[in-house]
TrEMBL record:
Keyword Nuclease set for record: yes
Keyword check for Ribosomal protein: no
Organism of origin: Streptomyces chitinivorans
PANTHER family xrefs: CALCOFLUOR WHITE HYPERSENSITIVE PROTEIN PRECURSOR (PTHR14859), ENDONUCLEASE_EXONUCLEASE_PHOSPHATASE DOMAIN-CONTAINING PROTEIN (PTHR14859:SF15)
Protein name, as recorded: Endonuclease/exonuclease/phosphatase family protein
Highest rank taxon of the organism: Bacteria
Entries under InterPro entries matching the protein: Endo/exonu/phosph_ase_sf, Endo/exonuclease/phosphatase, GPI-anchor_lipid_remodeler
SUPFAM superfamilies assigned: DNase I-like
Record key words, sorted: Endonuclease, Hydrolase, Nuclease
GO molecular function: endonuclease activity
Domain annotation Endonuclease/exonuclease/phosphatase: ranges: 1-218
Length: 230
């Protein structure tokens, strides 16, 4: 599941209800709290959603990974991307998670730049980082700040499966939550991962439209993935 939570500045009870109803094994957060007492807010989000903190937050300038107890964290790393003067510095939260005895999944959580040139370069850095993690099965999840016909989105989708395009399920558009007109949030996967379904979980039992609108200014993307055993 990928979710831009706008630093938990909106209805956090609604946010928690949406995540709990989706019951993800992996939650990739964008715009996690990253300033004063950010760890307290990360712990609160984990507690209220029934998940555990893996990595990221302020240390990745916003991207953060949470997981269920089914996931064993084999390794994690926060990566700061090169800074462009005058623009917010971006980063990646990354982890290799194991499910069961041998099903390993490399996860890269990202929030790409608002600037087109920088965003395109960052898409390449995301692909390089995922390839460098050394796992056949991998996912990129995040707020791409780009639509499917944009250069950065196309760069990612040329190398990875775009979850919605591969097996659409639920809703398509993610921004804004109140009036969704654009698909700028996505879950993408390597060829070793089978995409069973991917989209905005509108209509999922327990996910109320009012909660989706109140929780934050983006809609989440939920993907059902089958990860092969080694």
């Amino acid at each position: 599941m990928s979710y831009n939570i706008r630093s938990m500045r909106d209805d956090t009870d609604a946010l928690a209800r949406v995540v709990r109803a989706c019951a993800p094994d992996v939650l990739c957060v964008q715009e996690a709290p990253r300033f004063f007492r950010w760890r307290k807010y990360a712990a609160r989000l984990a507690r209220e959603t029934g998940l555990v903190y893996v990595t990221g937050g302020a240390t990745a300038t916003g991207p953060m990974i949470l997981s269920s107890l089914r996931a064993h964290v084999e390794r994690d790393e926060d990566v700061l991307l090169p800074r462009t003067p005058g623009l917010h510095r971006r980063g990646l939260a990354t982890a290799v998670l194991r499910f069961g005895p041998s099903a390993r999944l490399a996860v890269v959580c990202c929030h790409l730049s608002l600037a087109e040139k920088e965003r395109y370069a960052q898409a390449g850095m995301v692909l390089d980082r995922l390839a460098g993690m050394g796992e056949d099965a991998g996912v990129v999840a995040g707020d791409l700040n780009d639509e499917p016909d944009g250069r950065a989105f196309r760069r990612l989708a040329a190398a990875l499966q775009d979850g919605w395009a591969t097996r659409a399920w639920g809703g398509e558009l993610t921004s804004t939550a109140a009036e969704p007109r654009k698909r700028i949030d996505a879950v993408l996967a390597t060829g070793a991962v089978e995409v069973l379904g991917c989209g905005v979980p509108a209509g999922l039992p327990g996910v109320a439209d009012a909660d989706l609108r109140a929780a934050t200014d983006h809609l989440p993307v939920l993907a059902a993935l089958r990860v092969p055993a080694a």
